[in-house]
Amino acid sequence: MSPRARIVRRQSSGATRAARPLKVVITGPFAAGKTTFIKTISEVAIVGTDRGITDDTRAVKPRTTVALDFGRLTFADDLTLFLFGTPGQRRFEVMWEILSEGMIGFVVLVNAADDRSVAEAAHILETFKAYADVPYAVGVTHLEDSDQPEAVVQAVRGELGVPDHVVVTACDPRAKDDVKDVLVQILFAVLDRLETASSAAG
């Protein structure tokens, strides 16, 4: 069964019918691909707050998000995701907690081509886990020049201390299928929690 069919089937059972849009946060270090991730999948032109960079990170990219990026994706008739992208730099950390409020899950993107990205991603991951006990997934980006991408993905899992049941996967933020696959994993985890809670209550 396809991911979309699974989601639609679960909705029809009444277990996961959404009365309002669902919020997923896209976070990760500077230059991990968060804005591109949202642009690739959003049905609407994203609302962004990027500004020119004036410090030495300008050599990596000329602009960065300073508040948030926002996009929207509809999976089924009444299942709409609101995607909120965070700033990647710690000086804008105040926005992380604000954007985490009400999230049903989050995605951490890690730039495999930047050794500093993994260490920073570990801090961001622990910070967001502390904000809320919600499902998450890790997307490893910038694998184009790696001749062993799967080994890099597994190394990132180990360095971040991500348990086996949580998805850590290669993700090209420019590729719609990659982006959708990561978001579907978040939805599966959310739906599984709802079903487990429903079974326990019953």
Describe the structure concisely for a colleague.
By secondary structure, the protein is an alpha/beta fold. About 40% of the residues lie in helices and about 20% in strands.
How would you describe what is shown here?
The chain has one domain: 3-Layer(aba) Sandwich (Rossmann fold), CATH 3.40.50. Helix 1 (3-12) packs parallel to helix 6. The strands form 2 sheets. A 6-stranded mixed β-sheet has the order 4-5-1-6-7-8, sandwiched between helices. It has a two-stranded antiparallel ribbon with strand order 2-3. The chain is built from 6 helices and 8 strands. The protein has helices at residues 3-12, 34-41, 94-100, 115-131, 149-160, 176-201, and strands at residues 22-27, 50-52, 63-65, 69-76, 79-85, 103-111, 136-141, 168-170. 40% of the residues lie in helices and 22% in strands.
Q: How would you characterize the largest beta sheet?
A: 6 strands, mixed
Helix content: 25-40%
Report the principal-axis shape: globular
Oligomer: single chain
CATH homologous superfamily label: P-loop containing nucleotide triphosphate hydrolases
Strand content: 15-25%
Head-to-tail CA distance between termini: 27 Å
Radius of gyration, CA atoms, in whole angstroms: 17 Å
Order of helix and strand elements from N to C terminus: HEHEEEEHEHEHEH
User: Spans with pLDDT under 50 lasting ≥5 residues?
Assistant: 10-16, 51-63
